[in-house]
UniProtKB/TrEMBL annotation:
The keyword Signal applies. It comes from the Bacteria. Keywords: Signal. This is Nucleoside-binding protein. It comes from Mesorhizobium australicum.
């Protein structure tokens, strides 16, 4: 298996956005200093080249499609600049060659829309005049920032709905890899479900891919065969939603609204939107105001739950949305005591998990199996 650092991915909350400054993340207490001493120089729009390196195909209707929509927003906002993109970049030396090619073609700013670790860092270190960003990155450099999503909050909200709608209390999860975005997703979803059904459990099946419709379909089928009646996951396509539709089960999805593949099964989706973020970053680069930052897009400003599906009862939607309102008001459901799957206390009573802890969650809570 590839190293963990190469597999993670996926109101703005900026951490360290100005030279020499330290910012306190609202509602979180997370403090991260800015890293660049001086902004990179301005670039005339007509001379600018902005590149995007993607982990999947832009037609996936999921993760990569969402980033591609962000690129299109940049093109609309700045019609004189040039954009480049490469799809389905592998986690190998081919990634390094792709990012080097972006630089050789004159890129002033490069977005890696997944975590490419050392495959990207080598290029960034050799290209100090180029602005780099790594989605779900954890190693900021003097010319490389990171960005991701606080997806655990809308995931908790949809988990509340799942707990109310599941008849068996057995939830299933189609997982890509055992990485923080999966742990935070399974944990938040089950915590939401257990807030209304304390006996709920979650079984995960890892398929070792972000985009594999056949494997996702097989995993969804196996989970339903094992007694689960509501599925969740982090896939970039609709495989397990279609299985749920065929089997009379329910499903919560990721990335986009793809309810048309299973309108009766569709509960909601963790929907993402990078358009404003990309436009803002490119504008700063053009104006000579860009320094690297560490950014988590907040619920309601980059990530949220999708509109509820047609078979979600109004009383379920109302109860889940009341929780969403509490979170937007500053309440966090991620407060101890929280135990791991082996019964060990991992979050002490009274301790509220920070955004950094949620972002780097790497263990399963009680009730989660398969990871």
């Amino acid at each position: 298996m590839l190293k963990l650092s190469h597999l993670t991915r996926r109101g703005f909350l900026n951490i360290g956005a100005a030279a020499g400054a330290s910012l306190i993340l609202p509602k979180t207490g997370l403090i991260t200093p800015a890293r660049a001493q001086e902004p990179l120089p301005a670039v005339a729009e007509e001379n600018a080249v902005i590149a995007f390196g993607h982990t999947g195909p832009v037609t996936d209707e999921g993760w990569t499609w969402s980033h591609d929509q962000g690129m299109k927003a940049v093109q609309e906002a700045f019609p004189k600049l040039k954009t480049l993109f490469v799809e389905s970049i592998p986690y190998s030396a081919d990634a390094t060659r792709t990012f080097r090619q972006f630089v050789s073609e004159g890129a002033n700013m490069v977005f890696a829309t997944s975590n490419y670790g050392d495959f990207l860092y080598d290029v960034a270190n050799r290209s100090p005049d180029v602005a780099f960003y790594e989605c779900d990155g954890r190693n900021p450099l003097s010319n490389l920032g990171t960005y991701y999503l606080q997806h655990w909050y809308p995931t908790y909200v949809t988990g509340v709905a799942a707990g109310l709608m599941s008849k068996s209390g057995k939830l299933g999860y189609v997982a890509s890899f055992p990485v923080p975005s999966v742990y935070s997703g399974t944990n938040a979803f089950l915590m939401g479900a257990r807030s209304v059904n304390p006996n709920a459990t979650m079984q995960a099946i890892v398929i070792n891919s972000w985009f594999d419709p056949q494997a996702a379909t097989q995993a969804g089928t196996a989970l339903l065969d094992n007694g689960c009646d509501l599925l969740f996951g982090i896939m970039d396509e609709a495989g397990y939603l279609q299985v749920a539709e065929q089997r009379g089960a329910k499903a919560v999805m990721w990335n986009t609204d793809i309810r048309r593949y299973g309108p009766k099964a569709y509960v909601s989706s963790i929907v993402i939107d990078f358009k404003k973020y990309y436009v803002d970053q490119v504008r700063m680069r053009l104006e000579g105001k860009w320094t690297p930052s560490e950014t988590l897009l907040a619920m309601g400003a980059g990530v949220d739950r999708d509109a509820w599906g047609e078979t979600v009862p109004p009383e379920v939607a109302k109860q889940a949305d009341a929780v969403r309102d509490k979170i937007l008001g500053g309440w966090s459901p991620f407060e101890g005591e929280i135990k791991d799957a082996k019964g060990n206390v991992k979050v002490a009573a009274g301790h509220r998990m920070t955004e950094e802890e949620l972002y780097n969650w790497d263990w399963s809570i009680e009730g989660v199996s398969g990871l």
